[in-house]
Amino acid sequence: MRLSSLYGQAFQSIALPAMLAPTQSKATSLARQMRRQQRWPIARIKEYQLSRLTELMRLAEQESQFYRQRWHQLGLSADRLRCLDDIRQFPITSKEDLESHFPDGIAVQSRRNADWQYVGTRGTTRRVMVIHDFERRDYERAAIMVALTEDSPYRYGTREVSIPPDACSVHCGIESDRAVSVSRQLLALATRRVAWNRESISDLRGLVMDTWICAKTVLPPLPLDGDDSVLRDCVRKLREQRPMQLTALPEYLRALADYVRISDDQPPPIPVIRPMGANFPTSWKTSIESALRGSLREHYGSREMGPMAFDCHQTNGMHLLMSQHLIEIVHDGQPVLEGEVGRVLVTDLHNLAMPIIRYDIGDLARIDTSPCPCGRTTARIFLEGRVDDALVTDSGELLTAEAVSNFFYEQPEIKDFQLTEGRGGKLTLRIVPATKTDFNERAIEERFLSWMGQSRSISVRTTQAIRPEESGKFRHCKAQPWTT
Ligand SMILES: [Zn+2]
What we know:
Elements: H1 3-20, H2 27-37, H3 42-63, H4 65-73, H5 95-101, E1 117-120, E2 129-132, H6 134-149, E3 160-163, H7 167-171, H8 182-190, H9 198-213, E4 216-218, H10 228-241, E5 245-248, H11 250-262, E6 272-275, H12 285-292, E7 295-296, E8 299-302, E9 306-310, E10 318-320, E11 325-331, E12 334-335, E13 342-348, E14 359-368, E15 380-386, E16 391-392, E17 398-399, H13 401-409, E18 414-421, E19 427-433, H14 441-452, E20 458-462, E21 477-478
Parallel strand pairs: 3-4, 3-5, 5-6, 6-7, 18-21, 19-20
Antiparallel strand pairs: 1-2, 8-9, 9-10, 10-15, 11-12, 11-13, 13-14, 14-15, 16-17, 18-19
Helix pairs in contact: 2-6, 3-4, 8-9, 10-11, 11-12
Bound molecules: zinc ion.
Enzyme class: ligase
GO molecular function, one term: phenylacetate-CoA ligase activity
EC number: 6.2.1.30
């Protein structure tokens, strides 16, 4: 066992609760409870979900204008809820619903207090705002703790390196006059250069979080066009930091792994490699793990919902945090059969300040409820990409971004791709070839169409690199909007 891992364990069990105590946070005890709930008999978890859901829906009906009006128009009432399946009678909540009723039409006024925080989603297409109160944030802190440390050597206090798509986004929203270190902020407060108020205390808390609890080094985005100087710099930083965990966009992890493989430049072994911000193509797993000498671990979450699932050491799907959210998978508004792909609907069981019920989060996934060898009883989710990125075939079948990515990344002559669906279903395929020679555009076109099982107009072009979106993330599959 690494020394840093021992340090992390001691930090998390002794120092962290002591540091959180003055903030009255219950995060560490909530995290312990969440861990236990992962192994409860499934009937007990569902009973817990039902009691949370009942409280949430009663509150929504009484105090959230949006839900009350909508349900009453449809002749529905929260009293209808006798079992979890009864939630299916209630309408789905869209991003537009949240946007157009935010904040007064949807928030619960009786729970309004100074601790309310407005949280903006980091959506690639649109930003939605939600409200979290202190209690909700505490559950989220606990959920993050569970999602990042279950079956993993990573502990709070151990080093992490992060390469987000847009380094600015990490700091956006917390721009203030706060100092760069905990000691400087304390000095500034002591000398009255900074006034003692809510904001400066919250800055101090943020600094403690960033420097001691989640000791994170943020590196600039990596170029994907073969410029080695930034990659060399990144490997040097990894050698200096020796992180326990590396968090980065899947594309950056692959660029780094490719660079490590062809150069003599070796980073230290990185025990936990964690993709962020996008679906991870399964076919990249082995090469990234062997180049960076660690295990690839995934979790699923969003800004508005917090962590919703995490993988165990089996790395076969992600266990849902069922005590935190009620997750449904639907197609055409109806529940799908187990294992079938559909839209993900999320109900946040702990957000009483702004009820979010049956929220269409924009993802496609399938669920497996069969027992996992790890002993956790919770269902596992398999993500299939964004709804906006999925193609619909002529026969109405869904071709998810995950399936399309796996198809292209399994072709040895393709390094990267981007498939764009235009009006009338015309496809444009841009390809970055793995090697300059032996690339047959016609053969790729035929193979793809026969895999897709239909005749479509398609034009194939080769290119040097796929450009990221404005957010810094990559969209390999861009489909025309479809509705169900
Ligand atoms: Zn498991």
